[in-house]
Every structure is written in structure tokens, then in C-alpha cells.
Amino acid sequence: DTGVSQNPRHKITKRGQNVTFRCDPISEHNRLYWYRQTLGQGPEFLTYFQNEAQLEKSRLLSDRFSAERPKGSFSTLEIQRTEQGDSAMYLCASSHRERSYEQYFGPGTRLTVT
Amino acid sequence: DAKTTQPPSMDCAEGRAANLPCNHSTISGNEYVYWYRQIHSQGPQYIIHGLKNNETNEMASLIITEDRKSSTLILPHATLRDTAVYYCIVRFPGTYKYIFGTGTRLKVLA
């Protein structure tokens, strides 16, 4: 068990560019979550996968945001046409079906849009 | 609308019990209350959860009022390593959407 990993850890991009983040959950964890966190705020739910199915999506996830989990293992979060307001920490978490109350969080990807 | 309310900050002397309150007056009948903490620059970490009975594990105790409108997380003997932001969390009923709120910044003082 190596924990949840996220790549890259930091990303600086210019406004209007597309970015993609990757999350590798703990193996055997079928549930995967994406959150966004800005300074001084708690994590904000973005989306939820159970295996490869995206079962929940926040209204915050505008048309510019898309997430996938193609084989029920790793997941990607893509932001198209980035805006300065997208600057935040993007957190991924996973949990096991039998202990769904315990989400294991990755270290996050810090996005800065200039 | 599912939400939680917590004091923004608290101090606690090392070795003393830290009692962190949370108001979740809009919680629905079958939704749990979850507590996580976030140490600076790390992802949140699960602490404990409960429905209506008090719960205890190796990290903390959770006291939930009988009407379920509030709860208190208790760290029985706080250490400097317990300095963190503590989040009381509920879910939107019938969804997987967890609502974190702004949390309580606990500072344990030597």
C-alpha cells in the first residue's frame, strides 16, 4: 500500500491553456473522489467515481472540467481553457467499498494560472 | 441544505483534552457525521464517524447529541502533533457529495 499518488505536484500554466492531472488511488479501492481546495477553505467536492462509472458531479464542474477513470483504476482531471479562478489545490481521494467512510487523500496538485 | 458550522479557531494546552464542537442542524436522519483533519500541506486524514451513538477509536471520541443537531470531537490528550485544521463533514442526502465547510484550526500549545 503506497498511498494515493497525484501527478504533477505543481503546475503553472498560462490562462487559456489546458491542463490534465492524474490520480493513482490505492489498489483495491473502487471509490475515487476529486476535490478542489482554495486557501483558507475546506475541500470542495467535484466528482465521484465508483469503479469506472462517474456517479456524482458537482455543479462546480463546469463544461471546462472533465474527469475520467477509464479502467476503474487511475483517474484524470482535465481543465480546458484555464482561468485565474481555477488556481487551487486539486485533491484526489480513494476509499474501499467496505470502509467507504474512510477516504485516503493524496498530496494534491497545486495549480497556478497566470 | 446540508452544511456544518464550526468555530474558526481554538487553542488547547498540550496534554489536555481538546473539545471541538460542530453544528449540523440540517443533517438528515440517516446521514453520518464524519471528522477529518488536515495538517499543513497534507491531504485530509480520516479521524472518526458516527450516526447517533457516541463513538471512540484510537484517535478520538465523538459525542453526538440526541437530536443529532450537533457533535463534539474529543482528543483526550492533545499533543503538538495534533495541531491541524479539523473538519466536521456531512453528505448531501442520498448522494456521495461530502460537504467539508471551513473547519476549526486547532493549535496545541506547549
Which secondary structure elements does this structure contain, and how are they paired or packed?
The complex is a heterodimer of chains A (114) and B (110).
Chain A: E1 5-7, E2 10-13, E3 19-24, E4 31-37, E5 44-50, E6 53-57, E7 65-68, E8 75-79, E9 88-95, E10 104-105, E11 109-113
Parallel strand pairs in A: 2-11
Antiparallel strand pairs in A: 1-3, 3-8, 4-5, 4-9, 5-6, 7-8, 9-10, 9-11
Chain B: E1 9-13, E2 18-23, E3 33-38, E4 45-50, E5 55-56, E6 61-64, E7 70-75, E8 84-91, E9 98-99, E10 104-109
Parallel strand pairs in B: 1-10
Antiparallel strand pairs in B: 2-7, 3-4, 3-8, 5-6, 6-7, 8-9, 8-10
Feature tags:
heterodimer, A: 114 residues, mainly beta, 7-stranded mixed beta sheet, 4-stranded antiparallel beta sheet, 11 strands, B: 110 residues, 10 strands, globular
Descriptive report:
The complex is a heterodimer of chains A (114) and B (110). Chain A is mostly beta strands. In chain A, strands 2, 4, 5, 6, 9, 10 and 11 form a 7-stranded mixed sheet that branches. A 4-stranded antiparallel sheet of chain A has the order 1-3-8-7, with no helix packed on it. The radius of gyration of chain A is 13 Å and the shape is globular. The N and C termini of chain A lie far apart (36 Å). In chain A, 33% of the residues are buried. The model of chain A has no long low-confidence stretch (mean pLDDT 94). By secondary structure, chain B is an all-beta fold. In chain B, 0% of the residues lie in helices and 46% in strands. Chain B is built from no helices and 10 strands. In chain B, the strands form 2 sheets. In chain B, strands 1, 3, 4, 8, 9 and 10 form a 6-stranded mixed sheet that branches. In chain B, strands 2-7-6-5 form a 4-stranded antiparallel sheet, with no helix packed on it. The termini of chain B are far apart. At the A-B interface, strand 4, strand 5 and strand 10 of A face strand 4 and strand 9 of B.
